[in-house]
């Protein structure tokens, strides 16, 4: 079974899962990949497939004999043949190059003190060796130098969605490298407790029972009080989201999270004002 595929990093966005958790999602363009060469144990000494992606990119993936025999050169491999939502994966790529950096950024050194006559030693490495007893610097000493631009493998990632039309794989988590950088995605297992992404697009909201005095409660909560109690006054839109729509209000993002959709702050305010007008008209 083929357990790896090639791709390029597109962008990192945030999405919501079905249980309302906000997670980072990285979109990866995955081909399809073309089998360029099949390597056999008799000829090359090992069993592997050489996959090509794009115009120049190609990479060798070592597999077992039974899997390699099933594949022929020129055959296309799509992401849906390798992955599905809920698969555990690891991604290998080249990290972003940061140029020549000091020891504080490169290795996390604390630096020197600002006091006691050391105003210019805040980001210095300090002593790098001994005195005349040894009289040299040991190999591998952590010092300033070029950082980044190296091969990095990130494990513990998860496939959230496989889009056949756009030929993309959506991954929960962050992957190394800048946009359009080359990546190798390899399957390592399956998640036990997988929660899918929340469905996108607007859907009708299920009708909920509304208390007669709910609008009065919101009016009282939205009244302006003295400065000491302002922080304790709940947002009337948050009350509308929880009591009327039956959702969860995210105070940091200012959005209402329902089972089948996410309502932005501007739209939520419009819905709240419209609901408030209807209630006032009924009273009249």
Q: Would you write up a description of this structure?
A:
The chain contains seven helices and 15 strands. With 284 residues, it is α+β, with helices and mostly antiparallel strands. The chain has three domains: 4-97 and 148-190, Translation factors (Elongation Factor Tu (Ef-tu), domain 3), CATH 2.40.30; 99-147, no CATH class; 214-283, no CATH class. Helix 5 (214-221) packs antiparallel against helix 6 (236-244). The longest helix is centred in the C-terminal third of the chain and has 19 residues, at 265-283. The radius of gyration is 28 Å and the shape is flat. The termini are far apart.
Number of DSSP-assigned strands: 15
Derived from helix and strand composition plus strand pairing, the structural class reads: alpha+beta
Strand order of the main beta sheet, please? 1-2-11-10-7-12
The CATH homology group name of the largest domain: Translation factors
Number of domains: 3
CATH architecture of the largest domain: Beta Barrel
Determine the N-to-C terminus distance.
70 Å
Helical stretch tally: 7
Which sequence of SSEs, written as H and E, runs from N to C?
EEEHEEHEHEEHEEEEHHEEEH
Overall, the morphology is flat
CATH class of the largest domain: Mainly Beta
The amount of helix comes to: 10-25%
* Unreliably modeled segments: 202-212, 219-233
At CATH level 3, the topology of the largest domain is Elongation Factor Tu (Ef-tu), domain 3
